[in-house]
Amino acid sequence: MRVGKLKNKNMGQMDYGIFYCVILLLAIGVVMVYSASSYYAMFKNNDSMYFLKKQLLFAVLGIIVLCITMSIDYHKLKQYTALMMIACIPLLLLVFLFQGVNGAQRWITLGPLSFQPSELTKYVVVFFLAKSIEAKGDGIKKFSTGIVPYLVVSGIYAALVLAEKNLSIASVIMIVTFIVLFSAGGRLKHLFGIVAPLMIAAATVFTLGEGYRRARMLNFLNPWKDPTGNGYQLIQSFYSLGAGGITGLGLGQSRQKTLYMPEPHNDFIFAIIGEELGLIGCMFIITLFIIFIWRGIKVAMKAKDSYGTLLAIGITSVIAVQSLINIAVVTGSMPVTGVPLPFISYGGTSLVINMAAMGVLLNISRQAEGKADN
Predict the structure, then answer these.
(1) In degrees rounded to 5, what are phi and psi of residue 198?
(2) How far apart are CA 52 and CA 186, in angstroms?
(3) 257-293, pLDDT tens digit by residue?
(4) The dihedral of CA 44, 163, 323, 73: what is its sign?
(5) Hey, what long-range contacts does 283-290 have (CB within 8 A, 24 or more apart)?
(6) Which runs of E-coded beta strand occur in 19-120?
(7) Would you kindly state where each structural domain of the chain is located, as residue ranges?
(8) Which residue ranges traverse the bilayer (predicted)?
(9) Angle at which helices 148-163 and 167-183 pack, to 10 degrees?
């Protein structure tokens, strides 16, 4: 496939490393959503291609959105930051008017369509941080006026997301905020001496404070203690990864997707990838994420202003943190929590918004200082 150079009088070449990584991950996601969901979809919806058709539609829409945001000067987005910040609040509150799913109220549902405001919020917070920190400049080095205000603002949005029973995305918001503050030049003694311990303490309190989260934590340490309850999904994930071995059972040959793994096309799709494509397939996907993160950091370093640098760091960090958490959960390296694997897990809101953010990241790369070494 040949991609045009997408040049105009103000913009240069996009970062092809990021572009091809995203497209490859997207293509793998569409194929694996079909493979992982076919049996479940036939049983539940009487159509083995039910989730494939929806994910394919989301993928096409995501590519269109990426092309649009990639062609818009990212500086123009500054003027809409306050509006987006304000809009996210009623959207996050609106979810409580709709029926929850599995005890969580995260979606605004209108007929066959659903929208998850928290997926938009995590990027809106990044836009706010980039804009505000650029304006603050060296003021970021002061704790009370440089660090605390951003923790408070991000904390408010994280708290609204947490109220939806979505600790995972709330954690992503706060972790990404920490990364951006560190990258912006916040003092190490403030970030690691005060902020990091407070964030760890808060995460511990919120995890142990809810009965179902506490049960997940205890079962993470020994999932076989409750193999038919809280430990069930993680045990099925272990079976999937173990059965796949080095080379996998073959595409479409997963046994755990045949109603053993709950909703295998969602957060635990990486386990099905491990079963069907083996360690080789898993390492290929992890390598794509590593390349993406590396290229994202390079884009941030070459951005022509601090706003572009912080925006690129924030966008890259969202994908990095989410992919790390998802893979850690699936492999039993941390307690089970509902974080989708970017570009791969089933979900329209997450996919389309992630693709829009990738377009912004590519636009930053097109305006980088010097000639891009793609």
Answers:
(1) -65, -40
(2) 45
(3) 888 888 888 889 999 999 999 999 999 999 999 999 9
(4) positive
(5) 285/25, 285/28, 285/344, 286/327, 288/21, 288/24, 288/25, 289/21, 289/25, 289/319, 289/320, 289/323
(6) 108-110, 113-115
(7) 77-293+307-340
(8) 16-36, 56-74, 81-101, 142-161, 167-184, 191-209, 268-294, 306-331, 343-364
(9) 160
